[in-house]
Amino acid sequence: MGQPIRPAHSRQGEKLLQRLLKGNALLVLMLGLPVFAGIAGTVLPAFGYLPALGGFQFTLAHFEELARQPHMLRSILAGLSAGLITTSAAVAIVATFVAGFAGTRIFARVQHLVSPLLAIPHAAAAFALAFLIAPSGFLLRLISPEMTGFMRPPDWLLPNDPLALSMVAGLITKEVPFLFLVTLAALPQLPVRSSGQLTEALGYGRLCGFLISLWPALYRQIRLPVFAVLVYSLSVVDVAMILGPQLPATLPVRIIEWAADQGLSPRFLASAGALLHLAVVLAAMAIWIVLERLGRSALAVLTYSGRRFPNDAALRIASALAMAACAALIFMGLALLAVWSVAGLWQFPDAVPANLTSRIWLRTLPQIWEPLRMTVALGLSASSLALLCTILLLHRNGSAGRNMKATGYKLLYLPLIVPEISFVFGLQILIVSAGLTPAFPSVMAVHFLFVLPYVLLSLSAPWRELDPRFEKIAAGFGKSASEILLTVRLPLLFRACLTALAVGFSVSVGLYLPTLLIGAGRLTTITTEAVALSSGGDRRVIGVYALIQALLPFLAFLVASLAPQLLFRNRRAMRM
Amino acid sequence: MTRRARRFITAAILLLGVAGPAAATDVSDWNAVSAEARGQTVYFNAWGGSENINAYIRWAGDEMNARYDVTVAHVKLDDTAKAVATVVAEKSAGKNEGGAVDLIWINGENFAAMKRQGLLFGPDWTTKLPNWRYVDHESKPTVLKDFTIATDGLESPWGGAKLVFFYDSARTERSELPDSAVGLLKWAEANPGRFSYPQPPDFIGSSFLKQVLIELVDDKAKLDKPVDDATFEADVAPLFSYLDKLTPLLWRKGKAYPQNYPEMKQKLGDGELDIIFAFNPAEASAAIASGELPDSVRSFVFSGGTLANTHFVAIPYNATAKAGALVFANFLLSPEAQLRKQDAQVWGDPTVLSLAKLPAADRSTFEALDLGVATLRPDQLGPALAEPHPDWMTRIEAEWIRRYGAAN
């Protein structure tokens, strides 16, 4: 041996470093670090320690103060039940629909109808729903006074009802499309047709057959997204402000209010609240796990009972109707927003406005320019950066790309499973403590955090599925790995990259809390403007903002589907 | 250097968080102030919940840009306390220069809090503004005393406010309208579900509580001083027994409240509410002009008087663009800006200037201003009730939330 022997631990260290640089570790750094730093930024002030704001010693005083806040239990329980009901309803609707219709023509149709719903920002969907269901809303105007006799809106507590039912409805319409698309991605890996034929031959109804043969395997695959839905609906702020209860508001909304209060002690209080919210989310997860166990036992009982439930037509139709209702409510609401944005005086119970005017658009457009520019700049930069990182990650993982599924895949959900209020708030405190002024780069970085998982998720499937022979041929010509990436793989995946970019863009457009907290109100986007207008803003102006908010993702997807057509005019196979 | 390049450099400096130390701004040398203001960006932190006000601020910003090369960025708040919180946080973080807030739309307890904690730019700069000479500080006592707290030139008056009620004459008879808080309770008994107020701690909602408190408290002199803990319970007992009776008669039986006064305006238009109120006497006329309310809406006040105050702009002690903020505050006081503000087609907010002090041409344009069909003339607005000490507002808000903060 000519070389000196290096100590073993150093060789191990080198290996570790190499492994760290490869793929997943990079992901850990990018997604994990900010999340855990943010949680630390919440935990320390919750226990009183934040030198920058004059807190030097650890104390439980802020939790005592939290406990003294009026009506805390109500706030927590309302949010907790809303989250659990939303999640169970969304899972039930998607499960029965997939069970009842997988492989049929209706299934394909609904698929096209539901996909665009995912791109519509939560706030826009909430506005759409609010304009429909309020006592002075469109649905009642449509049938009044002819069928109801109402000349004036009835005194019904909708939306903002204390039981949070309207908030649950608003969340369901947005979470059903999400779960549905996640389920669609998981379905091809299951023997849908053969097991369907088998259970049918044994005399099972479609629902029951699907439930006992395929559901357990399917649920395992969509379990993380289901938890993401649970956490999201527990922690949501914008939808809760538009549709949720106000007397008292849910915990996340109250945390935001404390964080904005004058004086310093409310900031410590808000940190303690954010930590409490983390505990509530953990409790909700525990409850959900118990519900999962109960469901599993019930399914086992059903399986061994041998009951076949062959007549399930009513339930299947109900699930199809529920799916369609989600889409119909949102699209009708959006159309209504468009009408409001050009309405003149429009009094109850008129079903149409007395006159139309472009005045609101003309007055609002010049003001909308600045937030619009900010929204597009944030969306494009965050999603481009995310796309770049995604390509880097997928490329580095190379042939090991399949491993992404195992560890990396789970990690992706980290920013989605930790409640955003609990760590984004901490990040804000860290930024303030560091003496930084809220500015574009920090807001963009936080957007990136939420955009990356979605971009990675939407690009990783096409990346894996690309026929490996293209690259093998290129390698045979002696091309290097990066040459192959640039000249073969990326052009072939151009459309998929654009779609991932559009997905990332629409996620960024919809982000409310991170923009509000990290931007400290200085960086206004269409979403923050729209939510700021939500209570009391002129419906016409809200209509303009919500419409633009919903249009942006739509335009992004349009570009993503048109650009390849134009670019590859002379390559028939790549035009689709 | 082009303006764009300069702005880029400013942005870069802000981004790095290393704004250089600003020289002390001397207000008495106005030429120096205007020169220093050139190229600055003023972050104006102002409530952003009303479209016509936002449009007015945008107009003022455009004028500032064209005339003084000052950029105005409106940071739209849903509660002024947020801007106060920002300055408080900056102070305790030791950020005594280069703060994020340059100018705040403020009055009442927020001003009191900032003044008490020494968070305001001073000493007296407002009386040194060139346009101060037009301000009516003789017959408008609230220009110098904000909620009983002396302004000491730390905030510059921007507009007047008077609590005014609105109703739709197509639905409600003029003769049925209440003339006092007690009358309002009787009216609500006859018309359940048709009255409400914005959910405290909304500013206008808390103002309604103060209106009732002033009318019902046994000794009004108590309200000029901070709350006396020993007698607080007894002092507010009439207010809360009133509210206990009123709450079940409110819109949604008091299980939900409008979130601010523009929402009440919407609900008057929808027919959900029959009596609403605002702090701007021209609110209804402006809403009729914009098609939000039918032209049958009219105004009324209580003959015993309603709450009146002045709203101001103030500069935090650590503001980055003090000179720009001063020039903007001065512009907001100009006869031209005040005239446009009072126009019901634009905003309709009453001026703080004295017509007698204005040049003849400006005075006649003010006098010729069409107040709008639903606006009461100044002599019809009734007596002005002074705001209680800010302490009262904080205390009754907390008490309200404790009692009514959870619907049953």
UniProtKB/TrEMBL annotation, chain A:
Q: Give residue ranges for domain ABC transmembrane type-1.
A: 78-288, 372-560
Superkingdom assignment: Bacteria
Q: For this UniProt entry, which segments traverse the membrane? A: 20-40, 46-63, 75-102, 122-143, 163-189, 201-219, 226-248, 268-291, 317-343, 372-394, 414-436, 442-463, 542-568
Q: Per its UniProt record, what InterPro entries does this chain match?
A: MetI-like (IPR000515), MetI-like_sf (IPR035906)
Topology in the lipid bilayer: Multi-pass membrane protein
Q: Where in the cell is it found?
A: Cell membrane
Keywords, alphabetical: Cell membrane, Membrane, Transmembrane, Transmembrane helix, Transport
The record's SUPFAM superfamilies line, in alphabetical order, gives: MetI-like (SSF161098)
What protein name is recorded for this chain? ABC transporter permease
Identify the species of origin.
Answer: Sinorhizobium numidicum
UniProtKB/TrEMBL annotation, chain B:
* Superkingdom of the organism of origin: Bacteria
Quick one: signal sequence residues?
1-24
Keyword hit for Signal: yes
Q: PANTHER family, per this entry?
A: PROTEIN YNJB
Alphabetized, the UniProt keywords read: Periplasm, Signal
Coiled-coil spans are none
Q: What is this protein called?
A: ABC transporter substrate-binding protein
Species this protein is from: Sinorhizobium numidicum
NCBIfam families the record matches: PRK11622.1 (NF008633)
Q: Does the record bear Signal in its keywords?
A: yes
